[in-house]
Amino acid sequence: MNLAKKAAAEAACRHIKSGMVVGLGTGSTTEFAIRRIAERVKRGLKISAVPTSKATEKLALSLGIPLVDYNEFLESGKQADIDIDGADCVDPLFRLIKGRGGAHTREKKIAVASKRFYCIVDTTKLVEELIGSVPIPVEVEPNRWEEVADSLLRFGRAELREKRGKVFITDNSNYILDLSPNADVGEPERLEVDINRVPGVVDNGLFTKRLPDILFVGHPDGSVRVLKNE
Ligand code: 5RP
Question: Which of 34, 67, 114, 150 could bond to 83 as cystine, CB 3.0-4.6 Å?
Fold first, then answer.
């Protein structure tokens, strides 16, 4: 699937022009975009980029992409011109689940603070039904994760995320609960709001309000389908 991811990423990057502020998502598909942007920066492209995670920041810095600090960018109240980011799944209405990399809180903030949000995926990410396709990542305050997991039981079973035998810690120093929703949980729009109403929840990985403006779907043969959300 690497050819598909790379093709989708590079197609989205063609929209980047000098003078732009670019949001940089997180994950293996976005990594192809970051590498492509870095090549263009070396050839004279003048942009600044806002990273959505420490991993993205580290990679972009190592490749010489000029960065704006994530917090300073949000505090400035300015908008990025384009945000480029991946997804764990996307449905026919352009609704997403994100956060397999645990960065969805920052990713959502940057997507909201961008004039255009371009989502880059390969064909394996396309689903008919969003709910039930993959667990929904829920970022939670560490000292409240057990009470949040209990409160989330009305939506489904939530499991504390671990990585290499240790509790996974986000860039915001929080935990992640991966929620496997019940089949009768209802519409994703409502669920996104209801999960975030639980005290102790920071944000969840459903993206039903800030939808991508364009979806770039990479295929295994390297072709790309460009779907506009109009
Ligand atoms: C990270 C994300 C990623 O965009 C999502 O997990 C997709 O990653 P990949 O491109 O590696 O499949 O939401 O929080």
Answer: 114
Pocket test for ligand 1, best of 59, 100, 105, 119 (most atoms within 8 A of CB): 100
Residue 100 CA: nearest ligand 1 atom is 6
* Active site residue ranges: 107
Instruction: Please name each of the domains of the chain with its CATH number.
Output: 2-126+208-221 (3.40.50.1360), 136-203 (3.30.70.260)
Which residue in this structure is represented by tokens 């509790």?
A: 167
Give the tens place of pLDDT for each residue, 149-199.
Answer: 999 999 999 999 999 999 999 999 999 999 999 999 999 999 999 999 999
Structure tokens belonging to residue 10: 């590079």
Closest C-alpha residue for ligand 1 atom 8: 27
- pTM of full prediction above 0.85: yes
Pocket of ligand 1 (CB under 6 A): 25-29, 85-88, 98-104, 107
What is the rounded CA–CA span in Å between residue 92 and residue 180? 21
